[in-house]
Design goal:
The structure holds two protein chains of two kinds. By secondary structure, chain A is α+β, with helices and mostly antiparallel strands. Chain A has a single domain, classed as GHMP Kinase, N-terminal domain (Ribosomal Protein S5, domain 2, 2-Layer Sandwich). Chain A is 27% helix and 29% strand. Chain A has a five-stranded mixed β-sheet. In chain A, a hairpin with a 2-residue loop joins strand 9 and strand 10. In chain A, helix 2 crosses helix 3 and helix 3 packs parallel to helix 5. The longest helix of chain A is centred in the last third of the chain and has 30 residues. In chain B, strands 1, 2, 3, 4, 5 and 6 form a six-stranded mixed β-sheet that branches. In chain B, helix 1 crosses helix 2. Chain B is α+β, with helices and mostly antiparallel strands. The chains are: A alpha+beta, B alpha+beta. Strand 3 of chain A pairs parallel with strand 8 of chain B, so a sheet runs across the interface.
């Protein structure tokens, strides 16, 4: 149910529009974990990751593409299963506070209006998008050598084009920002890799898609720097016992290390 | 040697962008090697976003645009009880280019949205096909065109993307029972599009040369541009000239 705000700067539709009641297909209502996972992954397997930094041209240009003045310092396009995220990093550029000893990192996260499987999002920034922007800032900022960029600011703009599982989308956004920062040549201690898990019954399941996440009791997101062996962010929703959380942290950091290997392998091959 | 030459070219391009382009235009060519009348390679992929009812991804050289259409239900307008709505919006964010600021849409986004809305309101989609029950419920198609990378000629790419997304769109079969609309995504129907639109933009760069499909560097030097849209039968759908120039 959405009362569409009249936005004078956009083409507006009718005042109110709602989603119709969609017929629930039988398989969706049943437990998504009943007979293995929908896409036949193992319980600890992350969805296949595809990363592309730089221009998204279909074929490489015949002539060396010279960067234009309006291009971002670093860009990345990240896919994980059905999640598609695009990120642009600008910086280091002039910061807002001229007396700052260290640089600042700002992140701007938004969903495209058609990105979520539930209702269409309005163009106005929602509270959850602001919250996720802060999550991304806190998860990625420890990895950047901000003291090397005094008085400068590094801006990351992330747009989710298609989302599949809220925690998984946030994890994918963190990975995407890491790739874009590397593409921009920003000095970092290490790349941040993130992964999410969901608690189904008594087992932790890695990288839940939306139907799996809806059925899970608890979701956990971990952002980890494998090179420095430091966790930069833990986010948990739901109820678990301390032992389950412990176990989840262990398993999730292992999976983050695997995601990190994928990102590093891509960055190395893109240099060749 | 090659490295220092490349650096010198890059520096020249940044410091004297006008002179840089003029060097090419005076020879009758362009900085990426195209002929003045040559368009960039266009690639269109439909059905790329599974969360949207209709979607497409279009790449025009380095310009990448994604169009997603979401269908929701609303009450139709009192004056047109049998028609639904098609609402198009173009979204240019800092993610695609440094020229745009974060926040509400700037001038170029507003102009692009307005033009696209007017272009597609003129008989591409028969809005009566979007009616569920006359006077009670109709579909509103929210088409959002998100630019991922901006390298000039966003309007052409947006028109192509919206056309492809409308072709890909499957409107769910809907029924109204006692004021509640229920729909079934598995039984979708395609819209019959009354016309197919094909855009082409020609830009007058630096008051001297008319080029087709200008990219970002050329657009910055443009003094005038004209957009011509024809439909499948070769009839003119839209001509839009902006800027001064004979």
């Amino acid at each position: 149910m959405a009362t569409n705000i009249i936005d004078r700067r956009r083409i507006n539709g009718p005042q109110r529009s709602v989603e119709p009641l969609y017929a629930q297909s039988g398989a969706a209502a049943a437990d998504p974990f009943a007979r293995g996972r929908a896409d036949e992954r193992a319980l600890d397997q992350v969805r296949p990751i595809f990363i592309k930094t730089g221009p998204l041209a279909a074929q490489p240009a015949e002539h060396e593409a010279l960067s234009s003045a309006s291009a971002a310092s670093g860009t990345a396009f990240y896919e994980q299963g059905k999640i598609r995220i695009s990120c642009a990093v600008y910086g280091p550029r002039q910061g807002r506070r001229s007396n700052a000893r260290a640089g600042s990192f700002d992140c701007d996260f938004r969903y495209a209006p058609f990105a979520c499987s539930w209702k269409r999002r309005s163009h106005v920034r929602g509270a959850d998008e602001k919250e996720i922007s802060l999550i991304l800032e806190h998860a990625v900022a420890p990895a950047i050598r901000l003291e090397a960029y005094p008085k400068a600011c590094i801006d990351a703009f992330v747009t989710v084009i298609e989302s599949d599982g809220k925690a998984a989308t946030i994890a994918a956004a963190i990975n995407c920002i890491s790739a874009a920062l590397a593409d921009a040549g920003i000095e970092m201690y290490d790349s941040v890799a993130a992964c999410s898990m969901g608690l189904a019954g008594a087992r932790w399941v890695a990288d839940c898609a939306q139907p799996e996440e809806d059925a899970a009791l608890c979701s956990m997101l971990i952002a980890y720097m494998p090179g420095a062996d430091e966790i930069t962010y833990i986010l948990q929703h739901g109820k678990t016992t301390p032992e389950q959380t412990d176990q989840a942290v262990q398993t999730c950091t292992d999976m983050c290390a695997r995601v990190y290997a994928v990102i590093c392998r891509y960055l190395q091959s893109s240099l060749e | 040697m090659a490295g220092s030459v490349a650096f010198a070219i890059e520096a020249f391009k940044r410091i004297h962008p006008v002179e840089f382009e003029r060097r090419f235009l005076s020879q009758g060519t362009r900085h990426d090697g195209r002929a003045p009348g040559q368009f960039r390679a266009l690639s269109v992929a439909k059905g790329t976003i599974s969360t949207a009812h209709g979607s497409s991804t279009v790449r025009l050289g380095n310009t990448t645009v994604v169009c997603g259409i979401k269908a929701e239900v609303c009450e139709p307008d009192v004056k047109t009880p049998d028609e639904g709505y098609l609402v198009t919006n173009v979204d240019l964010s800092p993610m695609c280019s440094a020229r745009f600021r974060a926040g509400p849409p700037g001038e170029s986004a507003q102009v692009a949205s307005e033009h696209l809305a007017r272009l597609f309101a003129g008989g591409v989609v028969d809005l009566r096909e979007l009616c569920i029950e006359s006077g009670q419920a109709a579909w509103v198609l929210s088409a959002d065109i998100v630019c991922l990378r901006h390298d000039g000629n966003i309007i052409d790419a947006a028109v192509v993307a919206l056309m492809a997304a409308l072709e890909d769109l499957a409107v769910p079969a809907a029924a109204v029972e006692s004021g509640v609309v229920s729909a079934d995504r598995t039984k979708g129907r395609r819209l019959t599009l009354r016309r197919r639109l094909f855009p082409a933009t020609f830009t007058l760069v630096d008051d001297t040369c008319v080029v087709a499909d200008a990219d970002d560097a050329e657009e910055q030097l443009a003094t005038a541009a004209v957009l011509v849209v024809v439909d499948a039968r070769g009839r003119l759908a839209n001509v839009w000239k902006r800027g001064a120039g004979a």
